[in-house]
Structures
1.
Amino acid sequence: MASPAWGLPPPEDTPEEILRTEIITEARSPFDGKPLTAAEYALLEARLRSNPPNTQLNPKVEDLIYLIRLRKLFRSIGIPIK
């Protein structure tokens, strides 16, 4: 008589194929991580599309990012920067 295979998952486990097709009906807010229903998430997504948040950077930060990128370019070319 053959012995049972030990590599098989337990029978109560849901197969991965079923889990991949499962529709997710719960979501989390991208701002504070609170749980949202599918309808609340769709409403939030629509609001963000119609009125995107202000992502304007401080001009000093923009200048600093520009200088860091410039320094990275010089280093990749081989120009030493102190």
Note: The first strand starts at residue 26 and ends at 28.
2.
Amino acid sequence: MTTVRGARARARIEITAAIKDEARTQLAAEGAARLSLRAVARELGMVSSALYRYFPSRDDLLTALIVDAYDAVGAAAEQAAAEAAEQRPLDRWTAVCRAVRAWAVDHPHEYALIYGSPVPGYTAPEDTIGPASRVGLVLVETARGAHTGEGVALPPLPEGLRPEAARLAADLAPDLPPALAVMLVSAWSQLFGLVSFEVFGHFHNIVEDRDAFFAAAARRLGQDVGLLPRG
């Protein structure tokens, strides 16, 4: 009986993976708004009722794809941080940013699913929050390491921003200075702005050497966060 259950579990894993692979093919061809369970089932030679046993609705399938995409870019960021663990924080920050960009350029349709236009009629459930936080947490940890190690250089906070800075710090990183929390949120949003401009073609006929441009911009973001350049 254990062998039968194991075979069924493996079959379910394989079929689930095949469903998601076909759904990603549809994302590339048609976009997330036109994702169809019936079309996925048809391409896999399944009846729709069989596919519904794996994903009861289109939104369930979308959520699985979104979680996978967030986990993939998060894993790329975490791996880059681990590989650069012995480097100075600014170099580690830049390595993480470059890993995020590389993943996005290699997976433009999955990137568009999580950072592009919202899918009409779809509301992301709480299941996506943890995976969506992974890149941000790597950036926070990089800044935390600098703050507790060689220190960070931050500009003074404008008076009017101090209440919001205190709230951000309390929510995101209570052990870090409010000014650092503000700069982290700002840099996080600018990082994905840079990546989105490239992935969605806004640098066309403007930026030619995009590797060099991005590396310099990512390093500048790290310095804005207060990470110190090599002395």
Note: Residues 1-56 form a domain with the Arc Repressor Mutant, subunit A fold (CATH 1.10.10).
3.
Amino acid sequence: MVDLTQVMDDEVFMAFASYATIILSKMMLMSTATAFYRLTRKSPPE
């Protein structure tokens, strides 16, 4: 079994983890922004 320290030292895994964190943060931000926009403009649900 691979140690966690070996995984954390892997460049490819760290790049993947960084980009995945950025994408997930963007998705959460955009869903909140979309909900706010739709509620303040009283857009009908699709």
Note: DSSP finds two helices and no strands in the chain.
4.
Amino acid sequence: MTVIQRWTSEHRALLLLLGVSALMLLLGLGSRELWGPETRWANIALQMLQSGDYLDPYLKGSAYYDKPLPSYWLITATAGVLGDLNHWSLRLPSVIAAWLSVWLVYLIGKQMFSQTTGLIAGWMLISTFYFVFWGRVATADILTVCGLLAAVWWYWRGPDDTRFSRYCVFFLLLAVSSLLKGLIGFVLPGLILLPHVLSEQRWKRHVNVRLCAALAIALAVYLIPFALSHLYGAASYGQSGLGLVLRENVVRFFQPFDNLGPIYTYLLYLPVYTLPWAPVWIIALWVALRNWRHIEPNARWLVWGLTLLFVFFTASGSRRSYYVLPLVPFAQLLGAWWVARRLQQRKKTLGRGWKVAFGLSCGLLLLVLGVFYPWSNGGGGVMQFGQDVKARASAQAPWDDWRMVMIEVDNKLPLYVQNDNQPFYFVSEDQDCPRQGDSAALMAWLDKTSGHHFDPERTLIFAQHRSGDPLPLGYLSVDHQVVSSQVDNGDRLLRRRETESVAYIPDVGGSL
């Protein structure tokens, strides 16, 4: 067999998997409105880009160090590469992490069992609805999954290798993962690898000075962003990054203050988050337990690792459905092990039925996430609203000349409307914004409370309100043009509309 023939036989299937994965993660990515937590990441990254302050994260103008800085830096970096902060640059870090996760699952499966196992695990993962869904969402959750898989993959390249360079790379992967969401970047890889390290007294080989030195280097790298914030951030910022790490990762685990869920949360959501392949890994778990003494040691490790991760998340009093995401790749890997094992026992290759099942699952996900979701956000909504506001305002003055004020009337997160020159100014309910009066009184109040001067002819006022309620700050309509958001295709189809957005654009031809 020639080199080219060997390369083709070994990698053609992988290239197909990675190509389909890229298509599923990218199709229609920029055509969906911001959803849920994406608004926070968008707002914080936007304020970093507009203010030039990358060390002090702000949400709605207030200090917000809820997550470490690098998850925001990834977004600002992609915005710099693409030339703008938009839906693509916002979500691209998650997309890349999800794509790499599919590749890493393939590599782990190949290292532990066989290439067939790796390919099946990769196809199961990329055809899992909630994995693809969160892989297209701008948060730190899929970034954490990718970091966990990268650490496990690196360990399995040489579990008995005690070189300093091996330790350095491993612990640096843990440090970087922990800088994306929290200390689970250190905890999760340690838990899932613990059974393998303890087996055959393997841990004794790794108790050495080289490991301690590599760990010290990784801890120093982990502390760099927090040190930069402390030394060079704004003196008046008022929040400690390390203090919030302690609060969000340690205090929340033992004394949860939000996201309280019942103890059986993950018994429900692990099967849901692994659909449509939940029955496969559940059967695989049953088979593994039934034949425990006769299955491969790596399969036993996988079951132990999954069990420890499940117990860890269940032990925490703070529980949410998507916290189960780090378990999903390993559950699918367990299912892939069982399928490949059956094929090997029957001396068969992956049959047409499995290929059709993977194809149908991927096709359905493409239709739902890549076609239907973008269509449902069209015909109106926030994205069209932003374009309408920009067009109307730009007809009076260059877009970069406008200042933007967000009035938080119903405690909603601010709209994502881009302006490349000036940052938003946020007004929350507790600031006693004038609900009655006229535009002159509102502008005077803004000047007084902010300490800055707002040009009445170059200030856009944004607000949100519940559908059917009177317009917030309706008195501005006397001397402002009013632009309201329209119902999008999805809400039109479901015949619902919960909130509406409104923008007031100064009417320079009027009384102003």
Note: The chain has a mean pLDDT of 86.
